[in-house]
Amino acid sequence: MATQRILDFLATRRPTGPCLVVDLDVVRDNFRAFEKALPDSKIYYAVKANPAPEILRLLAAMGSSFDTASVAEVEMAMDAGAPADRISFGNTIKKERDIARAYQLGIRLFAVDCVEEVEKIARVAPGARVFCRVLTDGEGAEWPLSRKFGCVPAMAVDVLRHAKGLGLDAYGVSFHVGSQQTDLTAWDRALADAKTVFATLADEGIVLKMVNMGGGFPTRYLRDVPAAQAYGQAIFSALRKHFGNAIPETIIEPGRGMVGNAGVIKSEVVLISKKAANDNVRWVFLDIGKFGGLAETMDEAIRYPIVTAHDGTETAPCVLAGPTCDSADVMYEKTPYPLPLSLTIGDEVLIEGTGAYTTTYSAVAFNGFEPLRSYVI
Amino acid sequence: MATQRILDFLATRRPTGPCLVVDLDVVRDNFRAFEKALPDSKIYYAVKANPAPEILRLLAAMGSSFDTASVAEVEMAMDAGAPADRISFGNTIKKERDIARAYQLGIRLFAVDCVEEVEKIARVAPGARVFCRVLTDGEGAEWPLSRKFGCVPAMAVDVLRHAKGLGLDAYGVSFHVGSQQTDLTAWDRALADAKTVFATLADEGIVLKMVNMGGGFPTRYLRDVPAAQAYGQAIFSALRKHFGNAIPETIIEPGRGMVGNAGVIKSEVVLISKKAANDNVRWVFLDIGKFGGLAETMDEAIRYPIVTAHDGTETAPCVLAGPTCDSADVMYEKTPYPLPLSLTIGDEVLIEGTGAYTTTYSAVAFNGFEPLRSYVI
User: Which cofactor does it need (chains A, B) (predicted)?
Assistant: First the structure.
């Protein structure tokens, strides 16, 4: 997944220290694949996945909309050329003054999952559109989905009714099937819940208009994942099944699926050692770890492909760890990672599929190491 | 643990957004308590715990030495006024060019835990002192200690012998009993291992001079911890038991124990909600979370005391979560946190014991939220 452009950049520029290189051509291809797979859905790129200005500008120019988590992300999207009506404030947890600020900037679409949040919006963003997030079980997702966002469908009905009562536009329902979701039936289950909310409110004369189907679209790490086209078909079938001929406006919010496979991290092997003379597992220490951008290795959740110059030669299992003086800075230990026996201190390795959720997770200065640098080409 | 100075600062300055406030008076008291508890040990402050320049300057002026994890931390300590001979490069995982750079800056004390690292040091830091870290089990520590650092004692003998053979000064042994260690016997077990290495090498004519007893000294979170004096007595007894009348030079590396209780994070309640109308556990969302500085809540390891204006009134269990659009950004869920029923959206809360391992762990810009601000007073 390291494209020729990325390899050429690294060979020519020889950046020192760990860095992420993102190939915009891949982002462009991903955007088109989503457009093609779900031609009737609007694409709201999840800015949090990678807010690099070059990525936001490319997507804004291609007509993408944007899902944002904070006022800062709203401003980044606008700076990149997105008009306010293509931006959703998709965080269900917002300070009232941040809602007010977003409203001043022209934002009219807000996520909620409780009446308390609806009340904030009613006070400072009168008439805005709100969509209520419903809980899903996240089964089949590789990155853990807690119960943090959303409420049960019965409560979503109350929340949207309350919004309508306060003069807001009760606009729709959202869900998220869990990040790196590889079970295509997850959308079917979530859309069944969404339909329940639509139908219950319709009986009261409140007509919802939109389903925000969130993200969850995976990127390829070590295992193959279904292509965008397969997701599109599964989702369209589920929409047809639950909504019949009255399919509402739909939104998707790809983040990982848009940029994950567009980026590669270049890292250096700092040390290879053992803990005892007769150990059969080597410890391989890289100059990037859990606090330098690979936070998603938490609990060994995301397993990145690692490319070395010795690939194809004999491998043996390694514990893979980062460079900091923190004992928690270990990426893969419970399931050791096979790496070539001939790997040597000073070797460069490429960590693939790292275009999403790396640069911004990076700690600001842990152990004195600077945050992950990023090049977008 | 929010001192009057901290409370006055917050009341007067009214900083917006989450922030850490550190009281230097507490750091000064902690330094003196360590000096008094272990009068024969040199104190190497673990810079990674909190590298704020004001803290480093205070400690440098008080005569502290510094344990550093990177060239950047070496430079911070020197900028704060520490001479090179009071600085240890204590990370066992170093790039050869970083060792060379530290050597150029005058650093002569390096940590190792394998022959590969010894060889780097011999090449670019000739004649330097090295100490070899031995593995400990970390039992009794609240922050997980993996096998990442150190080697078994038998291998430490080989490593130090190798160092001597390459012209380095085989200077001593180090260990770390695990951060937030509340079992006073942990030092006894580790010192027994250290003594084994000393004795084995002495038989070969290699006389080690120093034991680096690392950190692990706890700070008070929700439960009382033994005072520095109790640690001092336990450690001195263990030294006497294992080394008799030939107690070597000793070093301690407090980080959390030096600054943990000196800092308080001010945060705001962004949202309080439920997931279903009949839920009995509230979700309380703060404007700081796992990615904004509270990384040590990972696996609910560190449980911070939280002070509200409603303390003393009836409480009920809450799930406590951060403000980002990341489902992993939940601090306490398995063991809900009791908070006052009268807690309200917009309330300020104080998170105590947050002087260590917060600011630098903070993500650089996750979800567009700026890194944790810090005021040292």
Answer: pyridoxal 5'-phosphate
In this complex, the residue of A93, A146, A283 whose CB is nearest that of residue B323 is A93
Q: Could you tell me if B287 lies within 8 Å of chain A, comparing CB atoms?
A: yes
DSSP secondary structure of A61-128: HTT-EEEESSHHHHHHHHHTT--GGGEEE--S---HHHHHHHHHTT--EEEESSHHHHHHHHHHSTT-
CA angle, A332 as apex, A330 and A338 as ends, to 5°?
135
Scanning A8-67 for CB atoms below 8 A from B yields: 46-48, 51
**CA B316 to the chain's CA centroid:** 32
Mean pLDDT along residues B2-31: 96
Q: What is the DSSP string of B145-198?
A: --S-S-B-HHHHHHHHHHHHHTT-EEEEEE----SSB--TTHHHHHHHHHHHHH
The residue among A7, A53, A13 whose CA lies nearest residue A264 is: A7
* Contact residues for B199 (Cβ-Cβ < 8 A; gap 6+): none
Cα–Cα nearest to B214, from B188, B243, B240, B250: B250
Which of helix, strand or coil describes residue B73? helix
Q: Is the pLDDT of residue B85 over 60?
A: yes
Alpha carbon distance A256, A45 (integer Å): 9
A113 interface with B at CB cutoff 8 Å: yes
Cβ neighbours for B98, distance < 8 A, ≥ 6 positions apart:
B70, B71
Q: Indicate the pLDDT class of residue A143, thresholds 50, 70 and 90.
A: low
Domain A261-376: give its CATH code.
2.40.37.10
Chain B CB within 8 Å of residue A142 CB: no
Distance, in Å, from the CA atom of B54 to the CA atom of B62, rounded to the nearest integer, reads 12
CA A74 from chain center: how many Å? Answer: 16
DSSP, residue by residue, B225-236: ---HHHHHHHHH
**CATH architecture entry for A24-259:** Alpha-Beta Barrel (3.20)
Say yes or no: B123 contacts chain A, CB-CB below 8 A.
no
DSSP letter (8 states) at residue B212: E
Every domain of chain A and the residues it spans: 24-259, 261-376
* A156-198: pLDDT as tens digits: 999 999 999 999 999 999 999 887 788 888 889 999 999 999 9
Nearest-10 crossing angle of helices B228-243, B24-37? 30
A114 tagged catalytic: no
Q: Which two tokens stand for residue A106?
A: 């022209």
DSSP, collapsed to helix, strand or coil, labels residue A302 as coil
Whether B224 has a pLDDT exceeding 90, the answer reads: no
Side chain identity, residue B226: P
pLDDT tens figures, B177-215: 887 788 888 889 999 999 999 999 999 999 999 999 998
Distance CA B250, CA B210 (A): 6
For an interface test with B, give the residue of A325, A331, A361, A366 to mutate (most B CBs within 10 A): A325
List of E strands, B222-314: 249-252, 263-273, 282-286, 306-307
- The domain B90-254 having CATH identifier 3.20.20.10: the answer here is yes
Sequence-distant contacts of B95-101: CB under 8 A, at least 24 apart: B95/A268, B95/A270, B95/A287, B96/A346, B96/B120, B96/B123, B96/B124, B97/B124, B98/B70, B98/B71, B99/B124, B99/B125, B100/B124, B100/B125, B101/B71
Are the Cβ atoms of B291 and A370 closer than 8 angstroms? no
Tell whether B194 lies on the interface with A, counting CB pairs under 8 A.
no
Question: ipTM more than 0.90?
Answer: yes
Adjacent-strand bridge partners of B286: B269
Q: Which residues of B touch A89 (CB under 8 A)?
A: none
CA-to-CA distance for A6 and A21, rounded, in angstroms? 6
Q: Looking at CA atoms only, how far is residue A143 from chain B in angstroms? A: 8
Beta carbons of A323 and B93 less than 8 Å apart:
yes
